[in-house]
Sequence to fold (398 residues):
Amino acid sequence: MSSKSLQTEMVQAGVHSLAEMPDYVSVPKVPPIYMSSVFSFDDVPSLDAVYAKEAPGYVYSRDGNPGTDYTADMIAQTEGGECALVFSSGMAAILQSIIAFIGQGDHVVSSPVLYGGVYNYLKNEAPRFGVETTFVDFTDLAAVEAAIKPNTKVVYTETITNPLMEVFDLEAIAKIAHKHGCKFIVDNTFASGAICKPLELGADIVANSSTKFMGGHSDVTGGSVVTSPENWAPIKRGLAMYGPIMSPFDAWLMARSLRTMDMRVARHSENALKVAQFLENHPKIEKVHYPGLESSPYHALAMKMFYKGRCGGMLSADIPGGEKGASDFIKNLKHIKFVPSLASYTTSLSYPAKTSHRAYNEEELKAAGITMGTLRFSIGLEEPEDIIEEFDAALAKL
Ligand SMILES: *Cc1c(COP(=O)(O)O)cnc(C)c1O
Fold:
């Protein structure tokens, strides 16, 4: 019988078993989850060597974890970038990217139709720290350049904007940003690296809400940033300082989801195009916003910038009858649920004026082109005919 108490035995058991795996002649097919907040050292010189980057190793999971690094490397590949970071949410990834390059007295130029949380940050929160933002129509390149001031540090937009699915000329905007010494940050959430790689078009930093198409199953909240080593360092510094890290378990789920992202996004895109074409031809629908439609003012640009003609799973449409029409339409649906998020395996819909764009007042909504009848659809992986049939039935009752 051991002289130690069971309590002590259990506390001391199995500590190094995972670390010993590299000597085995077989390894787990799927990388393990390193659910460890901290790492142990045999002596002080080993710790010094890790801090000095003279030896490989981890210290503390807010500064780095093998599982989250592994997922970050996969994400860097999806965006064709050199290095990546993962975050606890898309908002954390986006805000840390912006914060890394601005300080008191600086200025940001942004497109006005953005994910509501980011708009709210730029409009209401960043000014508390002395940072002002000019919102300008990014389809007007001369206006973008004219909005840049000597203190502008960041130019910000989305690949496919939420909720009106606008597409801007990222290559031209990158050139304007760089001419004036600004960082060009692009939120690639609605597209994903399976559709567009903004870094290849000249963006300096691409951020994603990995909660959406990367995760794809509505079970992980996360964010990511892909960029060059030079831009990575200040963002990494902020991540370790503010601490919005992705948990090792969420990183593991994210890596699993990334295995099928390209296939899923291809199917989301095919289905969304079919649904958009159906809605466009429906007599009750006032307007459909989808860059995959030939009638879209953004179609040519999308075909130039996007891979394989894919335009993603997101579209929006104006339902007649304003708020009542939108509300009735939602009630008329059976399987398609009203969900204030997107990019899951099932088709869902959202009501921008009441969810993602709640922070916009009536005037701002109108200026952005969002009406009380605008519904945003996230087209899922069902058979497209089944999605269309349900929409058709719901519209018939309006
Ligand atoms: C959801 C979303 C975000 C925010 O991401 P979270 O993971 O919810 O924090 C940012 N940008 C876009 C375009 C989004 O759809």
